Every structure is written in C-alpha cells, then in structure tokens.
Amino acid sequence: MARAKLSGFPEFLPAERIVEQQVLAALQDTFELHGFASIETRAFETIADLTRKGEIDKEVYAVKRIHAAADAPAEFGLHFDLTVPFARYVIENAGKLDFPFRRYQIQKAWRGERPQTGRFREFLQADIDVVGQGVLAPHHDVELPLVMGEVLEKLHQDFKVPKATMRVNNRKLSEGFYRGLEVDEPMAVLQRVDKLDKIGADAVVELLIAEVGMSQAAAHACLQLASITGSDASFVDEVHKLGVSHPLLEEGLDELAAVVQTASGLRPGSLVVDLAIARGLDYYTGSVYETSMQGFESLGSIASGGRYDSLASDGKNTYPGVGISIGVSRILVPLLGAGVLRASRSVPTAVLVAVDSEAERAGAITLAAKLRSRGIPTEVSPTADKFGKQIRHADRRGIPYVLFSGGEIKDIRSGEQFKIDLDSWCPPPADLHPQIIHS
What are phi and psi of 8, to 5 degrees? Predict the structure, then answer.
C-alpha cells in the first residue's frame, strides 16, 4: 500500500534540486562579496530559548526521545527560524568573534503551522546579520536591505524570478503611536496589525477592540497609520496629520526617514515606506522589513527582518544586530510547481561514454576519467547494450553528448557526430552544466 505523503515538507526532484543549488550558489556568492561569513547552527534549541520571544510557542516542534517518560516535558525543540539560534551562537562564541560580526546562514527551519501555498512545516531560508557588541551603527539599517535587494535583483536577472518590492517601517514609530493612544500593551496591537494582510482591516479592528480593549476611534487610528505608504520622507507629515504625539513616535519617524533617504540616494526605489509592516516577533526594536514578489503577493513576505537591540545578551554585554532572512523554499516551491523555473536536464552529466562491451568497460572508464580531469561532468553507460539503447538512455536524462571509444562524439540533439581531441575538447558553456530555463 502506498504511503501517504507528508504535507508541508517539500522535496525536490533532481532537476528541481539543480535549480535550487544554482540559486543557493548565487545567494552565497552575493553574501560573500559583501563580507558575510558562513556559519551553521544545530537544529535543536532549548524550549525555553525558543519560546521566550514572541507569539511562537504554538508553532514549535518539541523533541523527545521515544523512550522518555510519557509525562516528561520536552527539553528541546526544532528551531523555527535562524535568528534565535544565532543569538545563542553569538553569546557562546563572543570571545572568539570580531565585532561587528557579519554572518550568513543557509539552513532548514521548522514550524508547526498549517501547510499552504508558500508556507511549509520544513523550509530552507537564508539569513544575513550584522551584530555589534554594545552598540551597532545605524547605517547597517540601510546596508542590510540593500544587500538583500541586490540578491533579489540577481535572482530576477539571472533566473527570471519575478521582481520584488521591499517595504520598511520602524517599530519605534508604531509603538510610539500606540503609546500616544494610551495603549498599555503595544505588542498586542502590533501582533493584531500584523494580521492585516491575512484577515483584512475590519477583522483587525474587531480584534483590537475585543482583545486589546481599544476604543473604536483608537482602533481606526491604528488602521489609518497602517495605510500610509511612500517612497520618500513625506510620510512624516502624513503621520503628524493623525494628531498623535509621543517621544518614541518622533524617534521612530526620524530613524525611518533617515533610512529611506539614505537608501534612495544609494539605490533609488530600493525601499518603500509601508507603515502596515509590523513583524509579530517582539525581538525587533527598530527598522523592520518585508518583501513581496510581483505576481505572487499571496505568498506573503519572501524576505523579512529588522533591527534587534536586545535579542542577544549575556548579562554583561548586549549584542544588537540587524538581520534579514529570505525564504528560499517560499520562493522556489511555487515557481517550480508552476513551471516558471526548470533545469535543462535532470543530471549534471554533459557526456555519456558508451561501452562497446563489458570486456571494454575499463577503457570507457579511462576515457571518462580523462574528461573529468578537465572539469567535464561525465559518466559511463551502465550497460553495454546496442548503441541505440545507450543513446536513448542519455536522451531520457537530458545528457547532450555520447562519446564512443574511437574518439567520435555525438550530439544527440542534432544528430551530428564528429571526431574530437580528448586532450582539448570541451562542450560549449551552455552544455557543460545544466542551465535554468524560464517559462
């Protein structure tokens, strides 16, 4: 009997995996061009660490040994993002790191949420962060979104991934506005406003009134704030028109205006102000970012993050940082499923060496080794069937060339067959490795 497939745990076929690997290589290259060092953290964190920040406890996968006592509480859980384990990593290794520390991390994460388009229980994401010791300069609030914007533009140019728009807000601005409305628990308001795209304005107003205890006028003022957008500092006047004042609000307005103006000067149009951006996790303390992909807005944010001033602390030192994460699975699974992206073949092999007979297999292996020594992905036919069957085997797998023992090579797409110099011949660049095809 066939086993039921687990939903929310995407697995790629070989051709899809080739696309993913090339995308990851592009991410890694861009991150390293900007001086970010690669790290990897463990899959497990303590339940206490995973649940101490934000409204996430219902989504954490707890981990227990099968033979643990039935009533024993779970001590560990799978990390739901890469920021919490990174904070622990910084504290544990602070004496060995140079600050500001620039890190990138490409790794799986797990969330116990209902699987749907763009949302999975197991997913791959790529993070970049800059962390300081004690203080972190405000220019990193501009640098990080520009680096991630460069990544997204590279994906658009090289892989024809749809264009993306990065939007920015500031948590001080939002929290200061709510405090100006005399809200005692601004985080509760942020978490409801964060649901705006999912449930709509009317439902958010109802939640603010019923669950936070706001008046109808105050709840509508929060929606008015969330409706403000722009591409320059004109949003400051729009906020002031709402008639709410608070010192933290003014601090947030100044910080956000500085970020937008600096980013606009370096790369016009790279950041769009959107005061609806909330980010439900409460470790964010300043700039917050979310990114939508054109034509796939229903996926939600494909790259998000922000500044956190007190996520990592060992009691003596605080390690503020700015970080952004890009959802690799969230981008690729829908695009691969829709056929927008695909690989030109399902294997890296460029050349299949034909085998005349099993007695001659050693000679075929020698030919393959000679091509591989010059960086040409090559494999040897698994059987010594008639050449027609070996060619069909190559064709089914998308391998463009078949090499025969006499030094004749056949391009099985055109049917052309010609003699080559085994010491110098190389396939054209487009054939040497699988190419990404855009539909």
Answer: 85, 5
Q: Collect all residues with Cβ–Cβ distance below 8 Å to 415 and sequence separation of at least 6.
A: none
Cis amide leading into 247 (omega within 30) = no
Please identify which residue in the block is written with the tokens 């023992």.
Answer: 405
Is 54's pLDDT higher than 60? Answer: no
Q: Letter for the amino acid at 151?
A: V
The β-bridge relationship of strands 378-380 and 436-438 is unpaired
User: pLDDT grade, residue 71 (50/70/90)?
Assistant: confident
Average pLDDT, the chain: 93
Q: What is the pLDDT of residues 176-219, one digit of tens each?
A: 999 999 998 888 998 898 888 889 999 999 999 999 999 999 99
Block residue for tokens 């086993």:
3
CA atoms within 13 A on the CB side of 162: 18
In order of 4, 51, 153, the CA distances from 65 in angstroms are 24, 20, 44
Check if the beta carbon of residue 264 is closer than 8 Å to that of residue 231.
Answer: yes
Per-residue tokens: 72: 């024993």
Is 173 within 8 Å of 279 (Cβ atoms)?
no
Six token digits for residue 423: 């010491």
pLDDT at 184: 87
From the list 107, 118, 18, 22, the residue with the least C-alpha distance to 333 is 118
186-193 helix and 201-210 helix, angle to the nearest 10 degrees = 160
Which pLDDT belongs to residue 57? Answer: 65
* Secondary structure of residue 293 in the 3-state scheme: strand
CB atoms within 10 A of CB 34: 16
Q: What are the distances in angstroms from CA 255 to CA 141, 277, 307, 325? A: 9, 15, 12, 21
Closest residue by Cα to residue 155 from 264, 47, 26, 58: 26
Q: Is residue 232 classed as helix, strand or coil in its secondary structure?
A: coil
Nearest to 282 by CA among 53, 57, 110, 122: 53
Report the alpha-carbon distance of residue 369 to residue 372 in Å, rounded. 5
d(CA 365, CA 379): 8
Give me the pLDDT at residue 197, please.
82
Q: Nearest 10 degrees: CA dihedral of 301, 254, 281, 328?
A: 30
Which residue in 186, 145, 147 sits closest to 168, CA to CA? 145
User: HEC profile for 264-283?
Assistant: HHHCCCCCEEECCCCCCCCC
Note whether 347 and 399 are within 8 A (CB). Answer: yes
Q: How far is CA 38 from the centre of its chain?
A: 15
Find the range with the poorest average confidence among 24-33, 68-77, 373-382.
68-77
- pLDDT given for residue 53 in this prediction: 64
